[in-house]
């Protein structure tokens, strides 16, 4: 197996990740090529005086039963591995469920669930970064990685975490941003229809419109009905709303 050397390519694989679906594709695709693994868990947690509160949590390949043992309050993770990672101060750690020194002191329930999920090792990376005025813990856990990656934790942390943090900040901003308005298609109206619509916007009745345009109320009605059908609306109010959204220029000055 060829192990890629951490470098610009690692950061480059995350450059276009700016929304949830893109991150999920990255977890399932490019990340798998960079570090072969069975499952992954990536998160963003806001740092504060009492610890950390999760704001984002993304997983790939992890069972619901396993996630239920470590996820609390939406996106906050309570895991002996995360605690060990944070307390180590190194920003990376490798856990092997087959090594006595690694499992010593680990919560037996978590360890049992970890093994039941088919996991035997875990590479965890984490560090604190600024996102706007706040500090966040950015972390990622990779499950069942080739053993040779144990010696590469620091290199992976330096190469991967800054780019992952930047991607999570972009995702956070995209979730907070208002949706981009969908452009309203401009309607094609005949000159007569434009005259009718202008008077409809002014609140005129069919009879009043007919009098102003020299036509009968029935003729005006026969013009409005197909226009409503064409626009996919059910009544005059919806028709006026659509016209105002797509063609505000039809509103006469001072009307």
UniProtKB/TrEMBL annotation:
Origin superkingdom: Bacteria
Keywords: DNA-binding, Transcription, Transcription regulation
Family matches, as InterPro entries: Sig_transdc_resp-reg_C-effctor, Tscrpt_reg_LuxR_C, WH-like_DNA-bd_sf
SMART domains in UniProt: HTH_LUXR
Domain (HTH luxR-type) ranges: 182-247
Protein name: LuxR C-terminal-related transcriptional regulator
Lineage per the UniProt record: Bacteria, Pseudomonadati, Pseudomonadota, Betaproteobacteria, Burkholderiales
